Predict the 3D structure of the following.
Amino acid sequence: MRPAASPRTLARPPLRGRRQQIVEVVRQHPEGMAPRDVRTLLAVDHDVRSTMKGLVRSGILTRRAAGRYVVAAAGAGP
């Protein structure tokens, strides 16, 4: 019989790079942010939409309304 996995075993690895920057910017705007606004604030010249969708799939961001993303509630996600 296998022992149950502890919560520490299931923890996500820390965010790095662009993903971390996106989450920090969105966290500062609890009303939600559109990808174009995140792109402007981060002063990047590539689309961040696919990265933000990946953060939704990972349970880190939540899509509040069409094109508006917020940081997911603690404990939410897969």
